[in-house]
Amino acid sequence: MVGHLSRGNSQWKLESQGEALLIALVDDSYVSPSWYATKAINGKVVPTWDYMMAHVYGDLVIHDDAQWLREQVTALSNKFESRRDLPWKVEDAPEDYMVTQLRGIVGVELKISRIEVSFKMSQNKTEGDLNGVIAGLRADEKTDFAQKIHELRS
Fold first, then answer.
1. What are the tens digits of pLDDT across the range 86-144?
2. I need a surface site. Which of 68, 91, 104, 154 has the fewest CB within 10 A?
């Protein structure tokens, strides 16, 4: 797992005190009590938050090498630009500008040793409440999250 951060962020200078932890929020959403079928039955509902997250552990490596940074930034840009009709490429920017920009960042790499996944996806709810959550999420334009809950239910 690789990335970069601003050289102005002093965290990259701190010595690692053992295993590093990256907490990645995969997806999340507010869940309104008004979505639950149980609300109409007994009113015993409260708001909550559903989420999917990962704790990624490993050794943290800092990269302060211009070539490593250029390769990482190029790969990242290519990934996110690939779906565009006219994708931007690192080579589109003037070379002296890119050199200056690369001097402003440092690379980070997490050599993963283990991953722990945690999720709360209304899995403890009745079928009626789950259907309400899925419908509510879709109405709130959280269709992808609604689909994930639907798939976990299946």
1. 999 999 999 999 999 999 999 999 999 999 999 999 988 999 999 999 999 999 999 99
2. 154
CATH number at residue 48: 2.30.110.10
Residue 138 resides in a domain: no
Range of the domain at 67: 2-33+42-125
Q: What is the pTM of this model?
A: 0.71
DSSP bridge partners of 29 = 50
Q: Which residues of 99-130 are buried (b: 16+ CB within 10 A; e: fewer)?
A: eeebeebbbbbbeeeeeeeebebbeebeeebb
Residue 46 is given by DSSP the state -
| Count of structural domains, the chain | 1
130 domain-assigned: no
